[in-house]
Amino acid sequence: VSLMLGEYISNAFPDIKVNYTRNTDIFLELNERTDIANRLKSDLFISVHCDGFTNSQASGASVFVMGMSKLQANLDVAMRENAAIYLEDNYQQKYEGFDPKSIESYIVFNLMQNTYLEQSLQLAEEVEREFATKANRKSRGVKQAPFYVISRTNMPSILIECGFLTNPKEEDFLQTLDGQDYIASA
Question: How far apart are CA 88 and CA 149, in angstroms?
Fold first, then answer.
């Protein structure tokens, strides 16, 4: 989906240079993803993911911006995504004591609120509208959550959840080229 999205952007806006944090299916540490975007002085950061949930009926695409949500469900999603740092070596030092399971770590995020929040929200709303209209996806709305990967960027940032791999119907859709193309085009 990310590679298709990059191709759509390049074709529609030839003057825009698209950079990827990676172009193969490898694991890249969360801090490396934001470091790449910041080092390249990118104007926009789009992080593309697939979601999962305990309820196999959960469906739809979501768009997140950095923020402390009042909804426990959004915090739970962020905690699951951020837990990817446990797969990394030496994560305690790399992430300066950030603990994905600690509420205190998220309070620090709130204090570091993204200065690009308004721009991030505008983009997120456009993407969400395209998911609902162009890709005919269930709208889950634009949400704020303290995802590590969009908390440390020096530019407007959004995190996209393409759909739920824990929903067999959505997983099948996301496995097809047509499904991936619908998501990327939106």
Answer: 14
